């Protein structure tokens, strides 16, 4: 019903972000994602938040809590923001954008919130 790929992890663009600075031991980063919904995609069965929410795993294999920040979402380019968990994805479409996260300094892997896939940070 849906395929998704993390294409890269980058620094935020611009500067002077609203809200508080990232928590100690983290960096504000962008996780770039491409999503392709199939013809039978049903948002009541697979919610966008199941795909756009992440946790981090450190070198010792310890998984952190959710790494998405609060509600500021201000470091991605305008028109490229993804990851509020309320995207209205439709069947048979392709979407791409950036998800803002507070990535722990010691993270070596990103996993989705359900832990069903992992992506190694390069």
Assembly state of the chains shown: single chain
What is the CATH-assigned architecture?
Sandwich
Helix content: under 10%
Shape descriptor reads globular
Q: Supply the number of structural domains.
A: 1
Number of helical segments with 4 or more residues: 1
- Given as residue ranges, the uncertain stretches (5+ residues, pLDDT < 50) are none
CATH fold annotation:
Immunoglobulin-like
Just give the CATH class: Mainly Beta
Strand order of the largest sheet: 4-3-6-7
Q: Quote the beta fraction.
A: 35-45%
Structural class, from helix and strand content?
A: mainly beta
- Characterize the main sheet: 4 strands, antiparallel
**Terminal-residue CA separation:** 28 Å
- Overall mean confidence score, pLDDT: 83
Number of beta strands: 7
Output the helix-strand order: EEHEEEEE
Features:
3-stranded antiparallel sheet, Immunoglobulin-like, mainly beta, 122 residues, 1 helix, 3% helix, 42% strand, 7 strands
């Amino acid at each position: 019903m849906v395929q998704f790929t993390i294409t890269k992890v980058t620094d935020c663009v611009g500067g002077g972000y609203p809200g508080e600075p990232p928590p100690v031991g983290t960096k504000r980063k962008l996780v770039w994602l491409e999503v392709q919904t199939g013809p039978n995609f049903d948002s009541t069965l697979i919610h966008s938040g199941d795909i756009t929410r992440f946790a981090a795993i450190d070198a010792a294999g310890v998984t952190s809590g959710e790494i998405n920040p609060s509600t500021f979402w201000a470091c991605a380019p305008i028109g490229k923001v993804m990851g509020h968990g309320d995207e209205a994805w439709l069947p048979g479409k392709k979407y791409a954008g950036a998800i803002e996260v507070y990535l722990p300094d010691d993270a070596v892997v990103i996993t989705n919130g359900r832990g069903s896939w992992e992506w190694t940070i390069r």
